[in-house]
Amino acid sequence: MTGGLRVGSIGAGFFASFHLDAWSRLEGASLDALCDHDPDALARAGARHRIGSLHTDIDRFFEAGPFDIVDIVVPPVGHRTLIERAVGAARLVICQKPFCASLEEAVEATELAEARSVPLVVHENFRFQPWYEILHGLLKDGAVGTPYQATFRLRPGDGQGPDAYLDRQPYFQTMDRFLVHETAIHFIDVFRYLFGDPSAVFADLRRLNPAIAGEDAGLVLMRYETGFRAVFDGNRLADHAAHNPRRTMGEFLIEGSVATLRLDGDGRLWRRAHGEYGESVIPCSFPKAGFGGDCVYRLQHHVLKAMTSGSPLANTARFYLGNLEIEAAVYRSQAEERWIDLSH
Q1: Which of 100, 124, 225, 322 is most exposed, with the fewest beta carbons within 10 Å of its own?
Q2: CATH code reported for the domain at 5-123+296-313
Q3: CA distances (Å), 144 to each of 253, 255, 258, 274, 311, in order?
Q4: CA distance 148 to 27
């Protein structure tokens, strides 16, 4: 695509393909440059998408700027350095999650962007999945009455055996912090989107597959001042009933005084009134192509709309630090075997 806001993207790996596909479909965006150290990955991306220039050298990539948007889609270890360069070469920077290699690096990156007055957005796409946007509206309208509790059961079934993750994102095997840092962080953000900020957390984490370095199963319980409870129940080795186990990654139940809302593995939604047996279908349509209801496209569309209309940005780095603070509390809870207070 020619014309529109100039986008420079860094990374041509597995998940970057969803970013590149979304940019290529978005009206008002021009994918002007792509950088990756792997020339074969660059060639594959160039064959699939119309891209202005391809670079294996990061200096040459930035020389192709300035850009309206720099989209960073590489593992966390590279985020802090690339953000420092990108905020000097773009009007807005997007960075994939997990955001930086540590909370300290994330704070530094956030402050670097703020010092340059460059918006920094974390590509936390799960809240843009259409079923969560619908659930957000239903909860706001009181569809469950007084919310009692919510449970998400993560069951992608992709973590078994010595070859787990190697065909898609092999660095998963070497992450010292895996289930929470890489995966549950999505649901920390979703829970904040749907229910607000928790006041305390408790975690019980474990590693089931000896082929990986980090935890791959566990329970995270979030307590709210209202008495509400939210539970993340994650197990990457077990699966769930779904035509595509990666569409929702699991199943969700939200229970309240007048009704229960349910999400299944195919992205379908139901509401069951309290005291009733049958469920009513909640319409939820979305494209089957792309990742997670095309949430990558929806997030990038949100960014373009904010840049062109001035509408508020979701998932700014400053907001996202709250997710990382909760993540840090989860790991602290595991280490100290106690509830960690977040109300300060």
Answers
A1: 225
A2: 3.40.50.720
A3: 11, 7, 5, 9, 29
A4: 42
Distances (CA, A) of 215 to 128, 174, 235, 330: 26, 11, 10, 12
Distant-in-sequence, close-in-space partners of 115: CB < 8 Å, separation ≥ 6 = none
Query: Domain 127-282+323-341 falls in which CATH fold?
Result: Dihydrodipicolinate Reductase; domain 2 (3.30.360)
The per-residue pLDDT for 59 is: 97
Residue boundaries of the structural domains of the chain: 5-123+296-313, 127-282+323-341
pLDDT at 4: 87
Category of 104 on φ-ψ map: left (φ > 0), alpha (ψ -120 to 50) or beta:
alpha
pLDDT digits (tens, 9 = 90+) for 168-179: 889 899 999 999
* Ramachandran assignment for 192, one of left (phi > 0), alpha (psi -120 to 50 degrees), beta (any other): alpha
Contact 99, 317 (CB under 8 A): yes
pLDDT, one tens digit per residue, over 89-143 is: 999 999 999 899 899 999 999 999 999 999 999 999 999 999 999 999 999 999 9
**How far, in Å, CA of 179 to CA of 80, rounded?**
22
The reported pTM is 0.93
How would you list the strands of the sheet with 280-282, edge to edge? 280-282, 269-273, 259-263, 250-256, 147-154, 229-235, 217-223, 200-206, 340-341
Whose CA is closest to 15, among 79, 94, 96? Answer: 96
pLDDT class for 210, splitting at 50, 70, 90?
very high
The helix (run of H) or strand (run of E) holding residue 269 is strand 269-273
pLDDT at 3: 65
Q: Is residue 93 a contact partner of residue 119, using CB atoms and an 8 Å limit? A: yes
